[in-house]
Amino acid sequence: MVARLRPYLLLFLALTVVYHANLRPVDSSDSLPGSLIPFALFLDHTVTLDRFVPWLSKHVWYAPFVVHQAHGHYFSGYPIGAPLLVSPLYLPIAFIATGGDPGSLLIFARISAKFAAAAIAALSAVVLLFLLKRITTTPWAWWLTLVYALATETWSISSQALWQHGPGELAIIAGLYGLEGWSQDRGRNGWLWLCGACVAAAFMIRPTNLVLLPAILVALLPAKAAFTQQLRFLIVPLLGGLLLAGYNYYVFQRVSGGYAVTLLRGSTFAGLAGVFLSPGRGLLLYTPVALFALFAFSGRASPVRSRHNPLFAAAVAFILLDSISIGRSVIWWGGYCWGPRMLSELAPPLIVLMAIGVSAIDRPWPRRVFLALALYSVLIQAIGVFFYPNGHWDGIPEGVDASPGRLWAWRDSPIARTIRGGLYWEPYAIVGAAVTGGIPAAWLRMRELNVSPFEQSEPGTVPRANRGLP
Question: Which spans in 265-308 are helix H?
Fold first, then answer.
């Protein structure tokens, strides 16, 4: 048993090391409340942030924008599904930090959140590998897993902070795995329960993942799933939806939670062009290897496509529905971030389509182009991990949210500016100081370098949280 699991354990450990190689979480205001919820859960047995808000109000300028007050308590302004999911990963540090002051707990929270985010991202890659081995050959399953783990936003976004994206990707992959299990073994309805539970988890983690529900239904109907089978799939999402709606209405007085429905009233065409083609956030510029998902539609892939038709249908439907929902967002670029953050959850279904299209990709010229684009995509993600936010493209000469036209500036793109900004080397200096002089020396080095565990946005700008970004 151990021998069979060893490759997967090694993959998990190797990816975890890679995800921690920059020795820091990527700055983010909107991931702060989520990083605190596990501590609130363990120390105060609640999801409210009452313990932390007095300290936050004095020391973190954007605190009022990421915390919501209701019924005499303070709640995260974001969905709490992801923090609840990763809470068990906080246990070791929670025991150590018990009794600490709020300021110290916040430092521990930032550290814990990075470890949790990296672990969830690495775990999602392992689960994806299990899924891909059901679709294609073992060598290609491994290669495509590495593409997912290192050539997409999974590395530069999901593994770097406790955003909703990493846990969302894990839930989506597990949901697709349940669907594939059911399609290959119609007699075991446990697969549908798993699929439904993962769909519920996905939209409880991030509201836009709700499109996974119709995507799976699109796959079940042509597969001639019986009414009772569809019901088994739907029960948990319906219960999860009621639970989520109840929490949102209690805290935010609307079932959509901290996000206003009006955010989805942007121009679909402009948004889709931006998230796929703009130099500021275009998926095809930051992860061009995604183009190989189109090979799933080729004639050569027809036999594999037929064998995995429900999975194929669900992947295509999710990509289309999620792209449209993000494209319609009035702030499709996702605020201050690296690359197409808002499309992070497209990585799993895109990789699934690549696996279905392997027979068309695995020819001399397509294989060479695939390798070249995959390596380029890895390089772009590495820039986001090791260089960003140097160059400060998001905020200079003016904030991208105030001037979104900058997203189409080819001569001053985030990629070029961030490369010129150079390596974000400060974490290595701080860790070096800790190794040679202990924690006091590390704190001194942090002060000398003006490094804070909290986002370094210019006071006076409105953080992403206040803009209602999913």
Answer: 268-277, 283-286, 302-307
Helices (DSSP H) in 133-164: which residue ranges? 138-150, 153
Count the neighbouring beta carbons within 10 Å of the beta carbon of residue 221.
12
From 269, 413, 385, select the one nearest 332 (Cα to Cα).
269
pLDDT tens-digit map of 189-234: 899 999 999 999 999 999 999 999 999 999 998 888 888 999 999 9
Whole-number Cα distances in Å, 141 to 1, 135, 147, 168, 351: 21, 8, 10, 21, 10
Mean pLDDT to the nearest integer, 154-162 = 96
pLDDT digit string, tens, across residues 67-80 = 999 999 999 999 99
**Dihedral pair phi/psi, residue 214, rounded to 5°:** -65, -30
DSSP code of residue 258: T
pLDDT score for 467? 37
pLDDT band at 453 (very low <50, low <70, confident <90, very high): low
Q: Quote the crossing angle between the two packed helices 309-327 and 165-184, to the nearest 10°.
A: 150
By CB neighbour count within 10 A (0-12 exposed, 13-18 middle, 19+ buried), where does 137 fall? middle
List, in sequence order, every beta strand (DSSP E) within 247-304.
Answer: none
Q: At what angle do helices 102-132 and 347-356 cross, to 10 degrees?
A: 20
Classify burial at 419, counting beta carbons within 10 Å of its beta carbon; exposed 0-12, middle 13-18, buried 19 or more: middle
Q: CA 268 to CA 321: how far, in whole Å?
A: 12
Q: What is the pLDDT of residue 224?
A: 85
List CB contacts of 36: < 8 A, sequence separation 6 or more: 49, 52, 76, 83, 105, 106, 109
HSE-up (13 A, CA, CB side) for residue 82 = 33
Q: How many helices (H) and strands (E) does the chain have?
A: 22, 2
pLDDT at 262 over 80: no
Per-domain boundaries in the chain: 165-176+186-258
Report the pLDDT value the prediction gives residue 272, as an integer from 0 to 100: 96
The span from the CA of 379 to the CA of 230, in Å, is: 43
- Residue 96's beta-bridge partner residues? none
Give the span between the Cα atoms of 184 and 311, in whole angstroms: 10
E strand or H helix that includes residue 73: strand 73-76
